[in-house]
Fold each of these.
Amino acid sequence: SLLSSKVFGNETNLRGKVRAKTRRVGATRFEAM
């Protein structure tokens, strides 16, 4: 269960990073408009 929880944590971290990137891109686009 420890290994699966570690992999799950990595997946959530990757998703969080992608969300942060999309959030930044969206903010810059909104500011440009």
Note: Residues 2-32 form the longest helix (31 residues).
Amino acid sequence: MRLLRYNNNGDFSLTEYVESGIPKYAILSHRWGAEEVTFKNLIEGTNKSKTGYSKIQFCGEQAKRNGLKHFWVDTCCIDKSNSTELQEVINSMFRWYQNAIKCYVYLPDVSRPRADSTNASNKDWESTFRKSEWFTRGWTLQELLVAALVDFFSKEAELLGNKASLERHICEKKGVPVKALRGSPLFDFGVTERMSWAANRLTTRDEDKVYSLFGIFGVFLPIIWGEGQENALRRLQEEIDKKVKGVKGTPFVPDLKFASQGNVRQEKIQRCVTSFGNSSTYRGRTGIKCYRCDNNHLLQNALCQGAHSLLLP
């Protein structure tokens, strides 16, 4: 993992760390815009003339205020010309946001007067906050859910609030339940429900809508650009199925009632997938398997991954 650090001269340096030696860091969440600073720009020193440089400065300055020396920005900390590295990063991103001390969400489409302005108490920004494009993007979903401490900032770099204080605005129309926003384990939510959170979100690449869900479902898969959303969704489902079948135990237990909710569940899955990408790939299971398992936590995890209901007599 590469991290940025402010130098004494006000410039940035980039350092690569192995997993076991990563220091505390802040992380930026944003929507990509025009003229972002790339890894190549940073190495060649051609970054300061680009519009995206101000976002890197913002993240570094905010991290410094929070007592953090290091920070991560996806535009320039990843060498996207290296396909092997890009594969690793996509499968690591969920964990990186999860491990960040602070996550700063920069919203260039939300304006709020500075604190010393006579209009500082104006709440007009709240309506534009709810409509921000950041909430429509595929990759920002996992960043919202998994980062523990998330602060939202306006285009003037003014603090709007955090994930807790803005909870009502975030949950109002985004389809994400309060429990998930507050940090409940994602395996507490069924496959269909988690899939529905991303149903109306957008990504630049078709496949990215599925790739952005890898962390949310706890899977690690190769990235195959050009495979299409339907094939990517099929691979994701197959990996989720493996997790369910991987529960150790013995076959069917007669005194354990196991309900798949029949046609209701099938209809929910179909509606979810149709809105997700006009695809019928995510098929319902025709067979139901039950297992005895001494590890209740593992059993709960696996069953929730499969979006079944467990009913005990």
Note: The chain has two domains: 2-183, 191-311.
